[in-house]
Amino acid sequence: MNFNRTTLRTTALVCAFSALAGMTVLTTGCAVVRGQETAGAYIDDAAITTSVKARMVEDKTVSAAAINVETLNGTVQLSGFAKSGAEKARAETIARNAKNVRAVRNDIIVRP
After folding, report:
1. How far is Cα 2 from Cα 16, in angstroms, rounded to an integer?
2. Strand 75-82, strand 103-110: pairing
3. Is the Cα dihedral 73, 88, 11, 29 positive or negative?
4. pTM of the predicted model as reported, rounded to 2 decimal places
5. How far apart are CA 100 and CA 48, in angstroms?
6. pLDDT tens, 47-83?
7. Residue 29: Cβ-neighbour burial (10 angstroms; 0-12, 13-18, 19+)
8. Pairing label, strands 103-110, 67-72
9. Using CA atoms, how far apart are residues 28 and 33, in angstroms rounded to an integer?
């Protein structure tokens, strides 16, 4: 029963992040108009962000709520706060291992 509840919670969070990414794509199309990136790259970046956040939610050593993830042209920027250097490093590892990530900029601040 506990396994099913955990699985359902993880699935719900992944769906919520996917919906958020989809809404972001629909409501902020102006970035593409300004020539910052192509529509395809914008969608790819949203998918990368969603993937990284979903992996952070699944990883119990990282506080997904305290770490922000933004992606531009395949470069993931992490910001927010971590409780330890190990949590900061783990968040970076999760981001680096996500599909289609070109680089990671880790601006997470360790705060005890």
Report:
1. 21
2. parallel
3. negative
4. 0.67
5. 7
6. 999 999 999 999 999 999 999 999 999 999 999 999 9
7. exposed
8. unpaired
9. 10
